[in-house]
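Thread: Modeling a multi-component assembly for a lab meeting

Hi all, long-time lurker, first post. My supervisor asked me to bring a structural picture of a complex we are working on to next week's group meeting, and I have zero experience with this. I have the sequence lines for every component (208 residues in total). Could someone generate the structure of the whole assembly? Inputs are pasted exactly as I received them:
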Amino acid sequence: MFYEPRTGDHGLPKNPFNSLVIPRPIGWITSLGADGTVNLAPYSFFNAVAYRPPTVMFSAGHGIVDDDRLKDSQRNIEATGEFVHNVTTWETREAMNATAAHLPKEVDELAEAGLTPLPSKLVQPPRVKESPIHFECKLIQVVRLPHEKPEDAYTVLFGEVIGIHIDDDLIGEDGLIDVAKLCPIARLGYQDYAKVVAETIFTLERPD
Ligand SMILES: Cc1cc2nc3c(=O)[nH]c(=O)nc-3n(C[C@H](O)[C@H](O)[C@H](O)COP(=O)(O)O)c2cc1C
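Re: Modeling a multi-component assembly
Sure thing. I ran the full set together rather than chain by chain. Output:
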């Protein structure tokens, strides 16, 4: 089949787009509101985009709760210039999903999900203790994507990763990250996810 997304004419029961770019890592983003309220939310329009300096990005759609129509993460990070990415794992899957709830900006979403805050070293937003890897990030660029309707507004936020925490238990004797032990989860389309386990990992040597 072929379809032009602008026509919306895919003929399928659901828009297939986010089932076609898979699996996607999930940015689990901590930020601080103007009054210091801790905010935590998952973003699967998320990825690493550079090695040196290490850089990540996530893309926030329009908000539906507050008057400015911004998601709390975007509003907070544009105001403070700081965020933390907490790696999502099989163990944290339910808590991650709970933090997608559309709650007023005055609600501490980390506490609401029964999670434990850990102070960061270089930025103000806390880390999620239940996550074994954290990136402390400084906002470096904001890109507002073109759109026609207000509900299609997406803003991409890029952050330089200025501090990285790794649970020592995840570092094998060979000095490599034990991905099977980490058991990260990834977003597929619809309401589906994947987890990375030992049986699904394979190696390919790159050509010179
Ligand atoms: C796995 C997952 C991935 C998500 N990815 C995105 C995303 O990439 N962009 C987005 O705008 N919302 C995404 N959402 C929805 C947000 O998490 C949700 O709107 C949340 O309430 C935003 O929180 P905030 O206003 O505290 O930032 C995702 C939700 C889930 C469960």
